[in-house]
Amino acid sequence: MTSREDFKQAQHKLLVIPGPIEVTDEVLFANAHPSMSHVSPEFIPVFGDCIRMTRQVLLTKDAQPFLISGSGTLGWDQVSANLVEPGENALVLHTGYFGDSFSDCLQTYGAKVGQLKAPIGGTVDPATIEKALKSKKYKVLTFTHVDTSTGVLSNAKEIAQLVQRVSPSTLVVMDAVCSVASEEINMDDWGLDVVMTASQKGLSTPPGLSIVVASQKAINVFQSRTSPVTSYYASWRKWLPIMKAYEDGNAAYFATPPVNLIYAFHESLRQITKTAPSLEKRFELHRQASKQIKDAAKALGLNQLPVNDSVAANGMTALYYPDGLVASDILPRLGKRGIVVAGGLHTEIKDKYFRIGHMGVTATDQQRGDVNAVIQALQESLAEANLKSA
Ligand SMILES: Cc1ncc(COP(=O)(O)O)c(C=O)c1O
After folding, report:
1. Does residue 389 carry a pLDDT above 80?
2. Does residue 2 have a pLDDT over 80?
3. In whole angstroms, what is the distance from residue 230 CA to residue 83 CA?
4. 47-97 pLDDT, tens per residue?
5. What is the number of the ligand 1 atom nearest to the C-alpha of 149?
6. Which of 87, 180, 239, 325 gives a 20 to 30 Å CA spacing to 57?
7. What is the mean pLDDT of residues 295-324?
8. Ligand 1: nearest atom to the Cα of 179
9. Does the keyword Transferase apply (predicted)?
10. Domain count, the chain
11. What is the 75 CA–ligand 1 centroid distance (Å)?
12. What confidence tens digit (pLDDT) does each residue in 144-183 have?
């Protein structure tokens, strides 16, 4: 039998896409827990702890986490099916690909969706948001904290406070799939009503868990809806009693939870909330790693996609290929050096840029040397590609 101390994951290429990301041996070992009943007395407190530690990561006292088997996408379904009734208005702030997907999901459930689109690499101007909020009543405003297609970071606090001032009954929904645990989030203080995320990015766990955290205000709006919830699996009517039961230490069943993934998530949350670095230091280390990569890219003459550093994410970097070079010049050369990055995703400029993720241990565990390895591979790959094309 392998013990946790002996367990080492297999040698592999360094995964520095903006999610899934590298996970620790401890998290992978927790995922290999022997099969357990989802209603056993051993498992119930593990699930309950995950709910409590999720609140800690988002700095919220009493918001309600929903931990449900599925990917980040299921968060959009939960918001659309539980908080927006058919025919109600939703305002989506668009800073890249994921704004279109959230709009599409809201429309699928019958919402009337208006989008405010930022220019590529930018964020939506607050004055434009204010004007839209004054023009009609919106049930929800959604925005993407870090749009993974552009690496653009929106100012969550500013947006939430603007909505509270101009349209206090509108719920502020933040797609934080690419920002939880890599960007500072203060859910209660900033007044965010829903934060939705997934396990495979900053939360440093394998993919497969949808994590949605709803403020008590959002839960009240849900409780007072007049039409039926428009989903079966994503219904909070089904899941709310389950989450409450697990947190209270009782068994409950609606649909089988991903037991092993919950063990892995528990270990990652334990590392994030109960071991060094602290949450504040964790964010600082992400900022440092980000600056190192962005500075190195700049020194190599690469332009980043966000229009300036103040709107650039700290957990990822999106870079245009230099003139004359394309994806096939760079990505395979990085791969040959053991570094896996991601190509472009924004539909309008897909072939013109690539993305590097620097979340989780890649940013927080400097002894691993991940950031330096990425920078060195980038320098070598560019030099080699330039020689070839000269
Ligand atoms: C910002 C954002 N929202 C939503 C999603 C969808 O998450 P998933 O692919 O886990 O369904 C992603 C995935 O990368 C994302 O980056």
Report:
1. no
2. no
3. 10
4. 999 999 999 999 999 999 999 999 999 999 999 999 999 999 999 999 999
5. 16
6. 239
7. 97
8. 1
9. yes
10. 2
11. 9
12. 999 999 999 999 999 999 999 999 999 999 999 999 999 9
- Intra-chain end-to-end CA distance of the chain, in Å: 55
What separation in angstroms does the CA of 212 have from each of 70, 78, 101, 192, 218? 11, 8, 17, 12, 12
Cβ contacts of 49 within 8 Å, gap of 6 or more: 266, 269, 270
Per-residue pLDDT tens over the stretch 369-380: 999 999 999 999
What DSSP line would sit under 274-341, residue for residue? HSSSPHHHHHHHHHHHHHHHHHHHHHTTPPBSSSSGGGB-SSEEEEEPPTT--HHHHHHHHHHTTEE-
User: For residue 144, which atom of ligand 1 is closest to its CA?
Assistant: 1
Nearest CA to ligand 1 atom 5: 72
Whether residues 124 and 256 fall in one domain: yes
Cα–ligand 1 centroid distance for 151 (angstroms): 13
Measure the CA–CA gap between 79 and 81, rounded to whole angstroms.
Answer: 6
How much distance in Å is there from the Cα of 95 to the middle of ligand 1? 14
Q: What percentage of the chain has pLDDT greater than the value 90?
A: 97
- Which amino acid would we find at residue 324? G
For residue 8, is it within any domain? no
Residue type, 91: L
Instruction: Supply the range of the domain harboring residue 329.
Output: 279-389
Ligand 1, closest atom to CA 200?
A: 10
- 312 and 259 within one domain: no
The answer to whether residue 2 sits within a structural domain is: no
Q: Return d(Cα 104, Cα 259) in angstroms, integer.
A: 31
- What are the pocket residues of ligand 1 if the criterion is a CB atom closer than 6 Å to any ligand atom? 19, 71-73, 98, 144, 147-148, 175, 177-178, 198
